[in-house]
Every structure is written in C-alpha cells, then in structure tokens.
Amino acid sequence: MVQTLSAQEINLQILREKFSLELVENDKFFPELQYELPEISSA
C-alpha cells in the first residue's frame, strides 16, 4: 500500500536518508538540462 505524506511532514534530510540521495556536482550528470530547448507554446 502506498503511503502519502504532506510536504509539511517531510524534509531534505529525511529524503537523503530514505533514498540515499547525494549531491552530484558533475556537469555531465544530466546533460539534457544543458540543451537549448524551444519555448513551450500554447498550441
């Protein structure tokens, strides 16, 4: 069963511990974030 938490009940430290999150400073980690993407249109 899925447990839902309010954003007020969670913080970054809990997420780090639960999901073993760690800071990555490598520019190549998410290269798709570096792409020049077209503007989003309403069409």
What does this structure look like?
This protein has one helix at residues 12-19. The longest helix has 8 residues, at 12-19. It is built from 1 helix and no strands. With 43 residues, the protein is an all-alpha fold. Helices cover 19% and strands 0% of the residues. The chain is flat. The mean pLDDT is 85.
Q: Helical stretch count?
A: 1
Order of helices and strands: H
Largest sheet at a glance?
A: none
On the 0 to 100 scale, the average pLDDT is 85
Cα-based radius of gyration, to the nearest Å: 17 Å
Name the quaternary structure. single chain
Q: Roughly how much helix do the residues carry, as a percent range?
A: 10-25%
Uncertain segments are: none
Keywords:
43 residues, mainly alpha, 1 helix, flat
Secondary structure layout plus pairing:
Blueprint: H1 12-19
Short description:
The protein is mainly alpha-helical and 43 residues long. The protein has one helix at residues 12-19. Helices cover 19% and strands 0% of the residues.
